[in-house]
Design goal:
3 strands; DNA-bd_dom_put_sf; MerR-type_HTH_dom; three-stranded antiparallel beta sheet; DNA-binding; about 60% helix; mainly alpha; 5 helices
Length: about 120
């Protein structure tokens, strides 16, 4: 599981579900790198830093989801601005954790306001 705690379990999904699921590992490393304008080495560095953990195909090849590609794109933005890869990954993990905490807090506040 990625360091930021997002689940990537896609077992039991239909083909239609997979097309809609942003956690489904649909992209191989070459395609992911091309889409983002980065190298395979950059994607491996993001994995080593704990930002993204690609699934593996039956042949052992790395497979990335749309969600992981968004994280990688954000990392590239930060790196392009001069942030070291490891620091960029930590920033993104913290941003992701903060967004999740804010979502949980908002849900709690809605429940509390509704009198539950």
């Amino acid at each position: 599981m990625p360091a930021h705690g997002r689940s990537t379990d896609t077992a039991g999904l239909t083909a239609e579900d997979r097309l809609e699921d942003e956690d489904y590992p649909a992209y191989n490393m070459g395609t992911a790198a091309e889409m983002l304008g980065v190298t395979a080495t950059f994607l491996r560095a993001l994995g080593a830093a704990g930002l993204i953990e690609p699934k593996r195909s039956s042949g052992g090849h790395r497979r990335y989801s749309r969600y992981q590609l968004r994280l990688a794109a954000r990392a590239r933005e930060l790196v392009d601005q001069g942030t070291p890869v490891e620091a960029a990954c930590r920033i993104i993990i913290l941003e992701d954790q903060l967004a999740e905490a804010l979502r949980i807090n908002a849900a709690y506040e809605r429940e509390r306001a509704a009198g539950h």
